[in-house]
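Format notes (please read before filing issues)

Several people have asked whether sequences and structure tokens are stored in separate files. They are not. Every record keeps both together, in the order shown below: the sequence lines, then the token lines. Line labels are part of the format and must not be stripped during preprocessing.
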Amino acid sequence: MRKDFKHFGLLLFFMILMSTPLLAQETSLTADRASLFRLSIIVGAAIITLASAVGAYCQAKAVSSACEGISRNPASGPIIRLLVIFGLVLIETLVIYALLISIIILMVKWGAYG
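Then the structure lines:
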């Protein structure tokens, strides 16, 4: 485990080291707006990607646990089914909220506020 952290730390160090020339560049107002728009696209994509991946994993884990619970105790099947459907609805709602947030981030007119 320690060896993996060493490689990750080394990768992070070199990424920061290679990004230092970008921090030294002078920017103009239009470049700031363009970089802000570019950053908003990256953040929006990261939000929806992370939310979709975590939502899919949680839904798979919930369905798997529900099937296992029903197979252990078939008499409690209707209750478990109701609870798992309610849980899946809440998980999917979280993913839809993340989609709405990313759409809001992407649709802001970044040039109008400068």
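For reference, the curators noted about this record: The CA atoms of residues 6 and 12 lie 10 Å apart. The longest helix spans residues 29-72.
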